[in-house]
Amino acid sequence: IIIIIIIKLATSATVFSPRKITEVPETQLRVAFDGDDVLFSDESERLYKTHGLDKFLEHEKAHENKPLDHGPLKGFLEALGKLQQKFYPKGQRLDCPIRTYLVTACSAASSGTRALKTLRSWGLETDEALFLAGAPKGPMLEKIRPHIVFGDQMFHVEGAAELGTVAAHVLYGVAQKFQSKTVRDVKKDTSVKQLE
After folding, report:
1. Percent of the chain whose pLDDT exceeds 70
2. Which of 62, 67, 110, 191 could tie 118 with a disulfide, CB 3.0–4.6 Å?
């Protein structure tokens, strides 16, 4: 319920119920975020979609030390980070009841440095940063078993839901222009809940 309230405050998102139930930890809230168009702006994604991979790689290398603008869920990660910090003085850094993940299809070599430097420039961090270099996110999500994952691309959102993870499609950024037909088709499914 807290997650749904924060989503309503942060952005419009469509939550997909999983097709099967994956057991998630009862003593630790686990939240996974995509990078571009979710935590970060769509600047890099836009460049990739309009100019291709080579231009994207060149741009990321040239702007490695320039933080990305924030995306729609930066504030949610910030709020989770503040909650986590309340447990750190109690010696619960490793056993904190909240754990956050950056799970991105980008590779660490192409844009990982910029993503991590951006988080640091904001005074934020995630407990784990997973750069999958184009691999599907579903198998990794099965391993970390988050309570919810936030993503901007239906391919990854649907993959997470199929493997048993509650997934929220963040309706932000240039990726929406490339998948609008897919989203309309999927919204006919009764397992979808629109939050606005």
Report:
1. 82
2. 67
- Whether the per-residue pLDDT at 190 is higher than 80: the answer is no
Neighbour order of strands in the sheet with 29-33:
128-131, 98-104, 29-33, 148-151, 167-170, 13-16, 192-195
> Two tokens at 39?
């935590």
Quick count: other Cβ atoms within 10 Å of Cβ 192? 15
| Ranges of each domain in the chain | 2-195
Positions annotated as catalytic residues are 34
Residue with token string 């606005």:
196
Q: Say which residues have a Cβ less than 8 Å from residue 133's Cβ, sequence separation at least 6.
A: 105, 106, 107, 108, 109
Q: So what's the architecture of 2-195 in CATH? A: 3-Layer(aba) Sandwich (3.40)
